[in-house]
Amino acid sequence: MATSRITTLLTSAEYWNNNFTFRALDDFDPERMEPQTTRNDDGTTSAKLYEGQPAYVLGEIQVKDADGSSVHNISLKVFNKPLVTIEDLTSFVLVGNVRVQPWATAPRNGSRFVNINYSLIADSIAPADSKGVNK
Asked: Phi first, then psi: what are they for 14, rounded to 5°?
């Protein structure tokens, strides 16, 4: 499947938190989170770096837009693990800066349409009810 990447955009968490809701569909336990890895040419694995630093992939998430419709084309990673465990079915917010990298996949199964997807890398996440969080 062919993909095309576009330049990464830097945005604030405030934009995303005001226009989307995020919910964990699995526990995000900082003690168990491991950085995303990549396979090297010699068969070993190492941390995949974004802007020179590792990122942690957040597993199953639910994203809804301001109208409450589910959004299925967003993946989320963080540079810093959350300070506390974010439990299953807990709403959370993005913290700090958010890097947005849109990418497209070629039409599949006879479709004429290209799929536009978004990879987000936030500085971190926190439970939505946290005090003092950049919402």
From this structure: -55, -45
Q: What is the pTM of this model?
A: 0.80
How big is the chain, counted in residues? 135
124 Cβ contact list (under 8 Å, min separation 6)? 78, 79, 80, 81, 82, 83, 94, 95, 96
Give the three-state DSSP class for 135. Answer: coil
Helix (H, G, I), strand (E, B) or coil at 87: coil
User: Is-contact 1 96, C-beta < 8 A?
Assistant: no
Q: Assess whether pLDDT exceeds 90 at residue 1.
A: no
Per-residue pLDDT, 135: 41
Residue 113, burial from CB neighbour count under 10 angstroms (0-12, 13-18, 19+): exposed
CA atoms within 13 A on the CB side of 99: 13
Q: Are 129 and 21 in contact (CB under 8 A)?
A: no
Single-letter amino acid, residue 36? Q
The number of C-alpha atoms within 13 Å of 132 and in the hemisphere containing its C-beta is 0
Tens of pLDDT along 97-118? 999 988 888 777 777 778 888 8
